[in-house]
Amino acid sequence: MSIPEHRKTINIERSVEEFIQSEFVVPQSMEDSINNGDSEFASAGLEKWVDVMWLSNGAGKKGDALVQVDVYTRAKGKKSGGDRYGTECARLAQAFYEAMHVDTIQLYNYAVPASPTILTARRIMVLNSDGKFREPQSPGIKVVAGFEDGIARRTLTYRLLLPEDMAGLSYYD
Amino acid sequence: MLSMATNIPEIRNKLKRILRLVDGGWQKDVIALVEQTRDVVQKATPRSRGTAHRGSFGSGPRFLRNAAMTHLADGWTMKIIGGSAKDRVPIFGVIWNKQTHDQNGEMTAQLPKASGGVGDYTLLEIVEYGSRPHVITPKNSKFLRFVSSGGDVVFTKKVNHPGTPAVGMVRLTRVWMTRAGKELQAKWRLKLDREWAK
Questions:
Q1: What is the ipTM of this complex?
Q2: Is A72 helix (H, G, I), strand (E, B) or coil?
Q3: What is the pLDDT of residues A72-86, one digit of tens each?
Q4: Kindly report the CA angle at A51 between A100 and A143, in degrees rounded to 5?
Q5: What's the whole-model pTM score?
Q6: Residue of B nearest to A154 (CA)
Q7: What does the mean pLDDT of chain A come to?
């Protein structure tokens, strides 16, 4: 028995990533490994960017998905310009929070990646484990140090799940 | 009024039965949930390959000495505060990683920076949230010194750190715990409702 399109990980992940790209316009790296996209941006010398990483993806499989979004800005040296105090990073994180302030995200079928088709009436919910829609999993915006000099970083984590996952076994079995 | 008066002994008996039910298991279930949560976060915390190098870092910074003794995953600890034999006193479960934090959540093993001083994070935050690839260079001396995974002491002028992928074990466990807590609550609500309906 094949899994319905709206429950496939590739469709869920890609739909969310495309939603982020359409709603929140800064250069973005979509990856499950932190190494790939970063080298590309480091060489490009970008001033601000976003990394999206999937910590888990049980959405559509009786579980939920956890996605980590890191907002970065380049702080540069003490005497040069750039986001020295991390205010631009905070502003971007707030803009991202506002872009993700939705109850649900439309799902698409990416069987043909170049021309995705809409999955009618299939949406994934933005719902944290406290039962609050539109809110990140971590209360408020989690601030995490850049871990290395010259980069400001803020991290938001979102929990996503299908209505079927919420219904649990009563839907699946 | 007459109805109230006649119902009071029945209500009192029901409440007594509910008290006996709560005394018999609620607290044990909550403690079991805290223990399970600690096990879940421990399993979700990655372990470095191979065995730790006991004693190799004896004179190094505290986080390295701790890392040498045991894996980060082994540091998860729990403590139950409150409670009583009667089960009716509220209890509070705390889980923390004793290698990097104290039970109040204060960092105890911040990672050192090449420039001297320490960062506002520990190994736990790096494993939880990940870190980007970055270059480490000496700031106050000519060489960097570290001990390789094979136990050799290495001197170098530059290290290209590949970054650390985020694991998110604390956040994943928190989601699991919230779900398990809700299930426990639903189970007890059903038990109490049944007792009340008897």
A1: 0.85
A2: strand
A3: 888 765 555 677 778
A4: 70
A5: 0.82
A6: B129
A7: 82
Render pLDDT for B58-95 as a digit per residue (tens, 0 to 9).
Answer: 344 444 444 445 689 999 999 988 776 665 677 889 99
Contacts of A160 in chain B (CB under 8 A): none
Which residue in chain B is spatially nearest to A33 when comparing CA positions?
B165
Q: Quickly list DSSP for B27-96.
A: HHHHHHHHHHHHHHHHHHS---SS---TTTTTTS-HHHHHHHHS-GGGGEEEEEEE--TTS-S-EEEEEE
Q: Which residue from B minimizes the CA distance to A139?
A: B171
**C-alpha pair distances (Å), A98 with each of A18, A66, B59, B119:** 16, 18, 49, 30
Report the residue of B37, B110, B171 to disrupt the A interface, i.e. the one with the largest count of A CBs within 10 Å: B171
Instruction: Tell me which chain A residues have a C-beta less than 8 angstroms from the C-beta of B129.
Output: 68, 70, 144, 155
Of A129, A130, A151, the CB nearest to B132: A151
